[in-house]
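Subject: design request, 132 residues
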């Protein structure tokens, strides 16, 4: 009867016979909820650590990818530069070949002219010697 009067007043006895404001069942559920919340917070904390390490790992991979990307772009630009240099060198060599061909033709014509003049002078000398 005293228990009922206290229960109506909102007071209850726990398993250690201490007076409590909450009902023992609600107190037990509150304790269980507190324990579950603590477990949940521990799991969330562990999850945050795992996610943090994963983010750090991904950041490292992203930096490596960016570095390799820059190296690839540099290599591609170098290749384009070498290709342009070779094309320019090829154009210079073709111009030099054309110039040398023109010079060769000029020297060939000059040689023919000189050979013809030598022949004429040789004929002239022979005729001059014969006339004496």
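Subject: RE: design request

Done. Sequence follows.
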């Amino acid at each position: 009867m005293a228990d009922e009067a206290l229960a109506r007043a909102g007071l209850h006895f726990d398993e250690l016979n201490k007076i409590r404001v909450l009902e023992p069942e609600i107190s037990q559920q509150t304790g269980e909820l507190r324990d579950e919340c603590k477990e949940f917070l521990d799991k969330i904390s562990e999850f945050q650590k795992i996610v943090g390490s994963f983010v750090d790992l991904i950041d490292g991979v992203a930096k490596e990818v960016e570095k390799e990307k820059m190296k690839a772009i540099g290599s591609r630009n170098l290749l384009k530069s070498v290709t342009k240099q070779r094309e320019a060198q090829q154009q210079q060599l073709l111009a030099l070949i054309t110039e040398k061909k023109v010079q060769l033709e000029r020297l060939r014509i000059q040689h023919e002219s000189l050979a013809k003049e030598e022949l004429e002078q040789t004929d002239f000398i022979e005729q001059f010697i014969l006339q004496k």
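Strands lie at 12-13, 19-20.
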